[in-house]
Amino acid sequence: MEPILIEFPDYVETERLLIRAPKLDDWKELHEAVRASKAELEPWLPFARNDESEEERKANTKEAYVNFIARKDLRFHVYSKETGKFIASTGLHRIDWKARKFEIGYWVDSRQSGKGYVTEVVHGLTRFAFEQLEANRVEIRCDSKNTKSRAVAERAGFDLEGILRNDEIDHKGSLRDTCIFSKIKL
User: Of 59, 112, 131, 171, which has the most beta carbons under 10 Å away?
Assistant: First the structure.
């Protein structure tokens, strides 16, 4: 079956969070959250190293919407069920529909960090991948020095499969190592 024809819900709910597909007008909240979180995100996420204009953020959000519909990349935006406030961005990336393999990525608005939201997101999105998308494998990849991201993967019950040494260049131009965590269908 062509991925664009695969039907599944465009949202996931957890105890405290609504994790939903991007909407075109989400760009404002994303823009504000990235700006407020720039110092925390910059070492780990290349997109945070650029000072995107509002127009670029609009385009990025529209592209995320289009990619979600096309099933090329499944970005989700995370909101508090209680307050409706934007919390984080997450998604299922590097999708291989034939192998049913997905990689979870995430970042949190730094004003919302330390509240367990990202771990809750990972639990919810992992469940969604296995139950709704019939995943065989879900991965989390992160810089070996990103202790917060590594802790999320560990708290969510992912197994560290290995570390790719000298895998990429970090934000300072130095080689970095990448941890690969996974959960597989049993």
Answer: 112
CA distance 146 to 118: 14
The reported pTM is: 0.94
DSSP 3-state assignment of 31? Answer: helix
To the nearest 10 degrees (0 to 180), the angle between helices 27-41 and 54-70 is 100
Instruction: Please answer whether residues 44 and 145 qualify as being in contact, where contact means their C-beta atoms are separated by less than 8 angstroms.
Output: no
Q: Quick one: DSSP state of residue 168?
A: E
Q: How many Cβ atoms sit within 10 Å of the Cβ of residue 47?
A: 12
Exposure letters 156-173 (e unless 16+ CB within 10 A, then b): bebeeeeeeeeeeeeeee
- The closest alpha carbon to 126, from 76, 83, 87, belongs to 76
Determine the Cα–Cα distance for residues 33 and 45; give it in Å rounded to an integer. 14
Residues contacting 24, CB < 8 A, separation 6+: 58, 61, 62, 65
